[in-house]
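pinned: reference chain
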Amino acid sequence: MKTRREHMEWTLLGAVCATGSGFLLLTAGWWKLRHRQAFALTLREHGGSVASHASPLARALPVVELAVGLGAMVLVLPPSARADSSLLALAWPAMLGMAVLGGVFAGYAGVQLARGLRPRCGCLDSRDRLGPHTVVRAVVIACGGVGGWLSADATTSAPPPLLWVLTVVAGGLLVATVLAVGLPLLAPPRASADGDRGGAGRHQLADHLRSRHLAGDEQPP
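pinned: its structure tokens
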């Protein structure tokens, strides 16, 4: 039987992990929403069913990521404040969506890497490429959803509300920074042609089209 203190520690950890993943999803969703054409072009590099559904995926994924990220922000509220709040109803689908997003993408990225493919994923920007760090990041996001689910209905009131908010926000930002910046830095250096499989010209064209789009060209790539 867990003591009240042990339960609170696990509750706080779950909230920090969920909000950290939420901050990351907000960043990713906002980039995809602003650069939808560039993201769709990146998805077409994957081939198969992903390429054939690039346009609808480029529209749907940013909305889902932003919705899940915003829903995760409910966990910033201290348990005593959200115990009777209708906002708590937003946390359940957000945590489920976070777990599903992370789990599905971890599986997809793992399969791609097992096949020896490292296409651009457009997770956080047009240069982001699949790698082991991508799988780890997706697994952490899925775990954040599970942790948030377990802590969403906590009714304990300690620590004080202000300390809770500061801890969750600071911890969440730290988790998001590690996932977005720290993990890619651990990736081994690659030769520029690695993973392109002779497609350097295709990627140069993609980069050119991206630069045109990001510069404000209204023509579709």
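why pinned: The radius of gyration is 19 Å. The longest helix spans residues 4-34.
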